[in-house]
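Researcher: I'd like a candidate sequence for this fold, 110 residues long. If you have to choose between options at a position, lean toward the conservative one.
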């Protein structure tokens, strides 16, 4: 991910009072993960979902699944849901958007 995109996500998340865990749709653990943003450093419970099996690390719990149907997560589970460079590859992106809305707490950041 470009430094400019990473900085843009940081500037969006920094002023928010994020209440609760964070989910990244299409996550890959590592330095490019949005879950590693400094603005999210103090927030416990960082989860990534990806269709491919990806190992969790010290920062992120990875879940294998299709974001079109995130049945593994309860309604209103996350205070923030992030997604970058994923929806344009999803042939049924509207289902993912509906799921993002479902799993985000009222007033949460998307």
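Model: Candidate sequence:
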């Amino acid at each position: 991910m470009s430094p400019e995109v990473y900085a843009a996500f940081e500037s969006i998340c920094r002023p928010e009072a994020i209440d609760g865990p964070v989910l990244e749709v299409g996550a890959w653990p590592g330095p490019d993960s949005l879950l590693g943003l400094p603005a999210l450093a103090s927030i416990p419970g960082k989860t990534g979902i990806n269709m491919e099996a990806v190992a969790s690390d010290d920062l992120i719990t990875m879940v294998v699944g299709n974001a079109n149907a995130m049945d593994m997560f309860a309604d209103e589970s996350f205070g923030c849901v992030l997604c970058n460079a994923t929806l344009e590859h999803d042939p049924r992106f509207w289902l993912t958007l509906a799921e993002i809305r479902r799993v985000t707490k009222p007033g949460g950041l998307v």
